[in-house]
Write a structure and sequence with these properties.
By secondary structure, the chain is mainly alpha-helical. The chain has one domain (20-153): Arc Repressor Mutant, subunit A (Orthogonal Bundle). The protein has helices at 19-52, 57-64, 68-80, 96-118, 123-133, 139-153, and strands spanning 84-87, 91-94. A two-stranded antiparallel sheet has the order 1-2. A hairpin with a 3-residue loop joins strand 1 (84-87) and strand 2. The termini are far apart.
Length: 154
């Protein structure tokens, strides 16, 4: 049976980042967590509208792996925030802001997925991993991913 060493016995943290750098890192993660669910929903709604011609709560719930009441609650939030328009008996549609957000999220996802594929990550794993990474990657890192994958296509 192994036991953890007491904190006092552990070596001091080597290379602890500057406090302000750490603050900014944690802030960036919290902001990504706040926006990722919104981005996932608008991207899925966009995909359903393109591929199925409609985005119904039942279809959103099935593909998100959540209950219909959970979807209804999120749709109210998306309507409040101006991303979604709900029409009685016709499902949900994206506002202009929702369409822009879905396009940006999809583009980030494709860039991250292409980068992972270029590294040799299997396609199904790259697709799943890109789903999480896309929300947390900075604009600078995303640009580096694009440069890297563009260089590999030439």
């Amino acid at each position: 049976m192994s036991r953890k060493a007491p904190a006092s016995a552990l070596p001091p943290a080597a290379g602890l980042p500057d406090a302000q750098v750490q603050v900014e890192s944690f802030r960036q993660v919290r902001e990504a967590h706040r926006s990722e669910l919104t981005e996932d929903y608008v991207e899925l709604i966009s995909d359903l509208l393109v591929h199925a011609g409609e985005a119904r709560q039942v279809d959103i719930a099935e593909r998100m792996g959540v209950s219909q009441p959970t979807v209804a609650k999120m749709l109210k939030r998306l309507i409040r925030d101006g991303y979604v328009i709900q029409r009685p008996y016709r499902g949900v549609f994206l506002s202009d802001a929702g369409q822009r957000l879905a396009q940006a999220s999809r583009a980030r996802h494709r860039t991250v997925e292409a980068f992972l594929l270029a590294l040799g990550v299997p396609e199904d794993i790259a697709r799943r991993d890109a789903e999480g990474i896309e929300h947390h990657v900075s604009a600078e890192t995303l640009a580096a991913f694009e440069t890297f994958t563009a260089g590999r296509r030439d």
